[in-house]
Amino acid sequence: MRIGDGMKTMTGSTAVPGSLLAALLVLAACDRTPDPTPAEAEPRTATEIAEDDVEPLSIPEEDLRIVEETPTMVFRWQVPPALARHPKLFADMRVAAEASRIKLGELAREEAQFRVERDLPPAPVSEDTSWTVSYRSPALLSLVGETHSYTGGAHPNLTYGSILWDRQNEAPLSAYDLFEDAAAAKTEIALRYCAALERARADRRGDAVIEGKYGECPAIDDQPVVPVGSSETGIAMIRVLLAPYVAGPYAEGAYQVDVEMDEDLSAMLRNDVIGDET
Fold it and tell me: pTM for this one?
């Protein structure tokens, strides 16, 4: 089975942009009745995609970002130019972003009213989401979303989102779809992720011992998981993204846990993924 032979799942964070986009893509994958859309056309070849990548952008650069700043709210959203090659994915992401902007505006009005009633100084709410490319090849596009937000309370927060996109069939994938045996790869990656997280925690905590949920390994199913690499290295690692409060208290910050693609894991990659890297 080649990449894109059927719709897969998409990973995402608990942030509004990720959850809305996930819902849009799941609905598109599962609930749509057949129609003569580009998704049903023959998959594009890697050569066609590579040639398309050198063509001028099909989306105006200014459309790759949304900015709204008022006395009560600050909303920013941006995606990389690579999204211009994928109008369907871009459109879904922009719809999710606009929904987040509207929701933040509603929250801003509530927060402003709350502060007026209690004679508190103004404090605008904010949401700043930036999507970046973690890996790109003629067959795959991997994106990581970071959302920095403040919606009242003691401090701002950070959430993560991720998208792995099948460029040939314009469909979402999971990171485990890159392996011949997805279940076996997931089990192996999860074991290595938990061990690497424990080492990272020890570096930050020293001799301190934290029990309870912050002493356990958060389930990998609940975290964004993305391939990381370049055209020179291929897929160099699998990265698990843990927002503040997921693996430790807020003061510890976020964790980005990398699982190296050593010989054993690389041997589990699907042949079409290996060929795509050359």
Answer: 0.81
